[in-house]
Design brief:
The complex is a heterodimer.
Chain A: H1 3-12, H2 15-47, H3 50-68, H4 76-106, H5 113-116, H6 124-128, H7 132-143, H8 146-157, H9 162-169, H10 173-190, H11 196-201
Helix pairs in contact in A: 2-3, 2-4, 3-4, 4-9, 8-9, 8-10, 9-10
Chain B: H1 6-22, H2 26-45, H3 51-72, H4 79-92, H5 103-115
The chains are: A mainly alpha, B mainly alpha.
Chain lengths: ~200, ~120
């Protein structure tokens, strides 16, 4: 490489660029801090396993940084949750393949009770802060089909618009509305006498 | 038995879920922190894609300038280029390419004419 090229490259990567890069990393850090717990909670609802949920969040963060960090910041939130949603879908696909394989093997060998044991029993008390409404909500959300729960969490909890939720879930606006409507209907039926505000005030 | 309204479910869910994520255990928080640091390392070490076209453009321009100056600075001085000059002149001339079949003859003729 000629000296002219070297000089030009050095000129391009001035200290102001490294400062800008540090600023960008700092913004990414702040953003990831603001969404990591929510992402973990969503992944935990899907998997009922802390380790699996943490792996999903880790993969989603790395994928987000690789693919979307150059996108405008207002788009980060739906794009990050899209990464999370994709990893959750992948997890379900892998689990389906694994259970098929286990079914195939169970025809040849005697079933191993360790394989069939749940990875981690849900601990509602620890997860919900011991509130009755929290336990009820936890159970109701876990009972929802995955897409309905995801639509509810993204739209209601994360406050994404219908279009942003659709982008995060990789589906149409209409599908989001349908998932959300069914989720609300199921939650209404399951959460009778649900009033967390009353518990707080009493 | 009282069926809650949509607004009540939404507000209650937001409140409970926010409480839950604020009371995550230390081990989970520590692992989330590590996951974030790993992802940020990726951002620190991976080159920013927007520099790539500019870098390639600048490098290409520098090479073009370097070679352009080099080629215009005078006739070729390396022995190899000097030896190949007659053949290059023949090939690039407008004359008929039939003479290439008797290239050796024409090179000999050229030498004889120069000596004479």
């Amino acid at each position: 490489m000629s000296s002219q090229t070297l000089v030009m490259m050095q000129t391009m990567f001035t200290p102001s660029d490294s400062a800008a890069s540090a600023g960008s990393t700092q913004r990414l850090d702040l953003f990831l801090r603001s969404v990591e717990r929510q992402a973990f909670k969503m992944a935990h609802y899907a998997t009922s396993d802390s380790n699996e949920a943490l792996d999903i969040v880790q993969d989603a963060m790395t994928a987000f940084v690789r693919r979307y960090r150059e996108k405008p910041e207002p788009q980060w939130r739906p794009l990050f949750f899209r990464s999370v949603d994709n990893r959750i879908k992948d997890w379900f696909r892998r689990r389906k393949v694994r259970s098929r394989w286990q079914l195939f093997r169970s025809r040849e060998d005697a079933p191993d009770p360790v394989d069939s044991a749940p990875a981690e029993a849900p601990t509602p008390d620890a997860a919900t802060g011991h509130s009755e409404a929290g336990v009820a909500l936890e159970a109701a959300l876990r009972a929802l089909p995955d897409r309905q729960r995801q639509a509810f969490l993204l739209r209601t909890w994360q406050g994404l618009s219908v279009a942003e939720t659709a982008r995060a879930m990789g589906c149409s606006d209409g599908s989001v509305k349908t998932h959300l409507s069914r989720a609300m209907s199921a939650l209404r039926n399951q959460l009778t006498d649900f009033d967390p505000l009353k518990e707080v005030s009493s | 038995m009282k069926v809650p309204g949509d607004n009540q479910i939404e507000q209650g869910a937001r409140q409970i879920l926010d409480e839950q994520i604020n009371t995550l255990d230390a081990q989970t928080l520590s692992r989330l922190n590590r996951a974030r640091q790993t992802a940020l390392d990726e951002a620190r070490h991976a080159p920013r894609a927007r520099w790539l076209p500019a870098g390639l453009l600048a490098g290409g321009a520098a090479l073009a300038i370097t070679f352009g100056v080099g080629l215009n600075s005078g006739p070729p001085t390396t022995p190899l280029l000097n030896e190949a000059a007659p053949e290059l002149a023949l090939i690039t001339s407008d004359e008929s390419l039939d003479m290439l079949s008797d290239l050796e003859f024409y090179l000999w003729l050229d030498e004889v004419l120069e000596e004479g």
